[in-house]
């Protein structure tokens, strides 16, 4: 199983907002520069997170974003599944075979189901607020936006 890289971007953007609660609203440009997240992807992610009711625009993109609900009410699983566009742990990774396997007749599926249920539980119990203080800050190196690029976007 491989999740989209944009999950990391969305999670880091929200964790940035938690760590800078006293400075909200925050602009997409500010988060992009601080976290090293590509600006255009971040714009799309903030629209997605807005549609999900996690953040809201405080007037305009230039005015910035605030949380639409407390970060203590937003789980990591909520964010991941919103970015993925579907539940991430419901199907066996061997879903493309014709075995019609279930956890009763397939040892691999049984092990997969047990592992993913445990991970899903952990992600659903961990809030973005908890993650913000339990995860090291870092910068995504592939982003090389400079002020001129940001103005164009």
Task: Walk me through this protein's architecture.
The protein is mainly alpha-helical and 153 residues long. It has a domain at 5-86 and 128-148: Orthogonal Bundle (Arc Repressor Mutant, subunit A). It contains seven helices and two strands. It has helices at residues 5-19, 28-35, 39-51, 76-84, 107-125, 128-134, 147-152, and strands at 55-57, 65-67. Strands 1-2 form a two-stranded antiparallel ribbon. β1 (55-57) and β2 form a beta hairpin. α1 (5-19) crosses α4 (76-84). The longest helix is centred in the C-terminal third of the chain and has 19 residues, at 107-125. The radius of gyration is 18 Å and the shape is elongated.
How many β-strand stretches? Answer: 2
CATH superfamily of the domain at 5-86 and 128-148: Winged helix-like DNA-binding domain superfamily/Winged helix DNA-binding domain
Q: Looking at the structure, what is the overall shape?
A: elongated
CATH topology name of the domain at 5-86 and 128-148: Arc Repressor Mutant, subunit A
Strand arrangement across the biggest beta sheet: 1-2
List the helices and strands and how they pair.
Blueprint: H1 5-19, H2 28-35, H3 39-51, E1 55-57, E2 65-67, H4 76-84, H5 107-125, H6 128-134, H7 147-152
Antiparallel strand pairs: 1-2
Relevant terms:
153 residues; mainly alpha; Arc Repressor Mutant, subunit A; two-stranded antiparallel ribbon
Short structural description:
With 153 residues, this protein is mainly alpha-helical. It has helices at residues 5-19, 28-35, 39-51, 76-84, 107-125, 128-134, 147-152, and strands at 55-57, 65-67.
């Amino acid at each position: 199983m491989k999740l989209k890289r944009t999950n990391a971007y969305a999670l880091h953007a929200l964790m940035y907002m938690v760590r800078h609660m006293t400075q909200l609203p925050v602009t997409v440009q500010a988060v992009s520069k601080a976290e090293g997240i590509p600006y255009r992807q971040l714009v799309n992610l903030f629209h997605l997170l807005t549609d999900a009711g996690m953040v809201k625009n405080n007037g305009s993109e230039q005015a910035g974003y605030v949380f639409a609900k407390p970060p203590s009410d937003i789980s990591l699983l909520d964010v991941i599944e919103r970015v993925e566009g579907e539940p991430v742990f419901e199907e066996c990774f061997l879903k493309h075979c014709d075995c019609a396997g279930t956890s009763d007749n397939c040892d691999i599926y049984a092990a997969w189901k047990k592992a993913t249920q445990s991970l899903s539980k952990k992600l659903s119990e961990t809030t973005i607020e908890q993650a913000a203080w339990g995860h090291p800050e870092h910068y995504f190196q592939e982003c090389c936006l400079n002020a001129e690029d940001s103005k164009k976007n």
